[in-house]
Write a structure and sequence with these properties.
- Helix 2 packs across helix 3.
- The strands form two sheets. Strands 1-2-3-7-6-5-4 form a seven-stranded mixed beta sheet, sandwiched between helices. A five-stranded antiparallel beta sheet has the order 11-10-9-8-12, with no helix packed on it.
- A hairpin with a 2-residue loop joins strand 5 and strand 6.
- It has four helices and twelve strands, in the order βαββαββββααβββββ.
Length: 251
């Protein structure tokens, strides 16, 4: 089944547009906007959306199983990493659970949102900096980088096609869990793998070495108190260092 696309000049957020209208819209619909006035990422963070970037959201109706829906941002980040590195030769890494990291900072983020039991839809939003590196206050987080900082970027329509083709290739039926078949490949691109991080989970802070992922996309850490598998949270290097460090040998 092909994807259908609605193209907008400006919108508050492509994901908000889909959430407001999900009941009347079809399965496998893409909304792409030239710019967003209220783009956002995880934890309520603002996603700056100047013209020239890829800002799109996908509507899936009905939604896949919750454990599958939760790991689709991870799979989407892996798809973007492969495309970017294949075209530029520059290493890009998956920052668990949903970001794409290049040597200078964060280039893309993916956010999945549920409608709930009464409204069984899933919206997956993509923000990919193609031609502009927004300079905004990230509260001590990573700086923004753009594809154009490393090579000639695709235009937004081309980038949309690349991402959708990659998702369909890894998740052809739109059902089941796509991660087990590619988990080892995603782990090879996992930011901070084999290194010590500090993980903020709710009101707690854990420290441990990133070992990899399990088949549900949980981050596996090994720390002073043993092994842990995180299903949500935020990680930073420990001890604190340049947050955009890309380990040697990443491919």
């Amino acid at each position: 089944m092909d994807w259908q696309t609605i193209r907008l000049d400006e919108v508050d957020s492509t994901s908000s547009f889909l959430k407001r209208n999900a009941a009347e819209l079809p399965h496998r619909l893409v909304v792409r906007a030239d710019t967003q006035t209220g783009g956002r990422g995880r934890l309520g963070r603002k996603w700056s959306s100047p013209r020239g970037g890829l800002y799109m959201s996908l509507l899936l109706r009905p939604a896949p199983e919750p454990e599958v829906a939760a790991l689709l941002p991870l799979v989407g980040a892996y798809v973007i990493c492969r495309i970017f590195t294949g075209q530029t030769g520059v290493p890009a890494l998956v920052k668990w659970p949903n970001d794409v990291i290049v040597p200078g900072g964060k280039m893309a983020g993916i956010l999945a949102e549920y409608g709930g039991r009464r409204e069984p839809w899933l919206v997956v939003g993509f923000g990919l900096n193609l031609t502009d590196s927004p300079r905004i206050d990230r509260g001590g987080g990573m700086p923004a980088e753009a594809w154009s900082d490393y090579g000639v970027p695709p235009d937004p329509e081309e980038a949309q096609s690349f991402v959708l083709e990659g998702l369909d290739r890894l998740w052809p039926a739109g059902e089941g869990n796509p991660l087990p078949a590619i988990r080892s490949r995603v782990e090879r691109l996992l930011w901070m793998r084999g290194r010590e991080v500090r993980a903020s989970v709710g009101g707690m802070t854990l420290r441990g070495v990133v070992e990899g992922l399990d088949d549900l996309g949980h981050l596996r850490l090994y720390g002073p108190e043993g092994a842990a598998a995180l299903d949500s949270g935020e990680i930073r290097p420990e001890p604190l260092e340049s947050p955009t460090t890309i380990p040697g040998g990443a491919t």
